């Protein structure tokens, strides 16, 4: 059994495999690491390509498209490595990318998961939108990154080269202990795609495990390879899954007030989309809220389980203010500028 499995989930991504798999194989394969491709029932020539060009790579063929979340759940069930790395098919790895992640995990048993520093493949001096140098959320569930606040993506000038605790690590390149992944329940299959890694990391943090960024490791991510950022389907999944995530994980204290303010913010978002003529995305937001209300009761057992297993009442790395108000009203558009004026929970507060 190898120590680490790098698992790439593929769906109709032959072009991406042709472009990016060579770097992964070159920079990852060793006596202690194997590269695995799990295919989500592709209808293109992905499987034929893999069998022809990479006949020695392990290939997991799933019987249908399970989406990102359950596709990885089913693939990782077949892996016995100590560490598993969920790696998007549109990620270019760099020489030596793997060792800092594994070394950090080896020397920090309290850490369940880590991510590298993620730069944009198209603008390699800038951070990548969906991962950057690590993820956080505000008190209303809106995600942001160290290196990307809403639409503002920073240039990487070495300002975030220190390893720090995170609220969430990106699913584009997530290195996690297989034991922690399994014990936390894996990714939420009903999410299908989007927000599933944040939900998983919330559970890990709430149960006393840590999530970190290790910037000594660097990869480049294309992003939006499956759905563009403004695609109505992506808008729908992001809003619906974010609401489900809040319902599953919010402490009972402040639950109702958080949702009331969140509904108000989402109403403003919907009105903004309507005013700019993006009727499909506005409809996606409305449908997300409608479907959330339909699904909410079915998630009640999971909410009770999460609350029962919570050992950290207030997660120290959750931003206690509103990222939207900090951005739009206070003009704070970088991670550093926000945390010169805002703050996260302290360790003493987290135990209250």
Describe the structure.
With 352 residues, this protein is α/β, with parallel strands linked by helices. Helix 1 runs parallel beside helix 2 and helix 6 packs parallel to helix 7. Mean pLDDT is 94; it is low at 345-352. Helices cover 41% and strands 18% of the residues. The radius of gyration is 20 Å and the shape is globular.
Work out the helicity level: 40-55%
Q: Write down the Rg.
A: 20 Å
Sheet of most strands: 9 strands, mixed
**Derived structural class:** alpha/beta
Strand runs, count? 13
Report how far the terminal alpha carbons are from each other.
Answer: 43 Å
Q: Strand share of the residues?
A: 15-25%
**SSE sequence, one letter per element:** EHEHEHEEHEEEEEEEHHEHHHHHHH
What's the structural domain tally?
1
Structural shape: globular
Mean model confidence by pLDDT: 94
Helix run count: 13
Tags for this model:
13 helices; two-stranded antiparallel sheet; 9-stranded mixed sheet; alpha/beta; disordered C terminus; 352 residues
Q: Any chance you could write out the topology, listing elements then pairs?
A:
Elements: E1 4-10, H1 14-28, E2 33-39, H2 46-53, E3 59-61, H3 67-76, E4 83-87, E5 91-92, H4 98-107, E6 111-120, E7 135-137, E8 143-145, E9 148-149, E10 152-153, E11 164-165, E12 173-177, H5 178-183, H6 196-206, E13 210-221, H7 232-249, H8 255-275, H9 279-295, H10 300-309, H11 323-328, H12 335-341, H13 347-350
Parallel strand pairs: 1-2, 1-4, 2-3, 6-13
Antiparallel strand pairs: 4-12, 5-13, 6-12, 7-8, 9-10, 11-13
Helix pairs in contact: 1-2, 6-7, 7-9, 8-9
Could you provide a short overview of the structure?
The chain has 352 residues and is α/β, with parallel strands linked by helices.
